[in-house]
Amino acid sequence: HGPRHAQALRVSAEVAGLSPDQALRIAFACEQLIRRFALCNDAGDHAALARMFVRDGSFSRPTAPDAPVQGRAAIEAMFRDRPRRFTRHLILNTVVDVLSPTQARATSYVALYVADAGSEEAGAPPYPSTGPQLLGGFDDELVLVDGDWRFQSRRGSLALRIAPQPGAQPA
User: Fold this and answer.
1) Can you tell me the distance from the alpha carbon of 66 to that of 51, in angstroms, rounded to the nearest whole number?
2) Percent of the chain having pLDDT more than 90?
């Protein structure tokens, strides 16, 4: 992280009554949670993904930001029950604001690449990308519970839908 991020973290730490080192550790733990969410999502580990939320946590997909799913069990079911597909979520420009020793807020961009891997025709990787590809973001409320950082809420939004060009062949 650059000097601006370090300055913002110092200010965030001062507001939260923490040392810069404490704020840095919290910010790192929150960033790891955000990145692990993407890895679990791509791996289809829906149970681990759901455990990243507090019991009554909420999740809104970027494609449906005004339709939050409430509770761990419902979040796990939503991911488990959707059609099978191959995804890669790239998490970008994550900024964590440490609010207190037990609360943080984060914003991230997400680039999503999708391919149909649910049919025999799909074969083995590398899969042809079927599009559309998406660029969006997440606004997260994070809390420390029993020594672990968890999502209280995770609200997605969509900025761009990048459809394949007509007649274009996948790379």
Assistant:
1) 22
2) 65
Contact (CB, 8 A) for 154 and 91: no
pLDDT surpasses 60 at 9: no
Q: Is the dihedral of CA 156, 160, 166, 171 positive or negative?
A: negative
Query: Over the chain, what is the mean pLDDT?
Result: 87
Q: What region, left, alpha or beta, does residue 159 occupy, with left being phi > 0 and alpha being psi -120 to 50 degrees? A: alpha
Query: Which residues have a Cβ under 8 Å from the Cβ of 19 and sit 6 or more positions away?
Result: 13
Residue 105: which of 72, 149, 64 has the closest Cα?
149
* Torsion, CA 30, CA 32, CA 37, CA 43, rounded to 10: -170
Taking each continuous run of H as one helix and of E as one strand, the counts in the chain are 4, 6
How are beta strands 53-60 and 148-162 bridged, if at all? parallel
**Calpha distance 118→120 (Å, rounded):** 7
| Dihedral over alpha carbons 78, 79, 81, 84 (to 10 degrees) | 150
Tokens at 99, concatenated: 């609010």
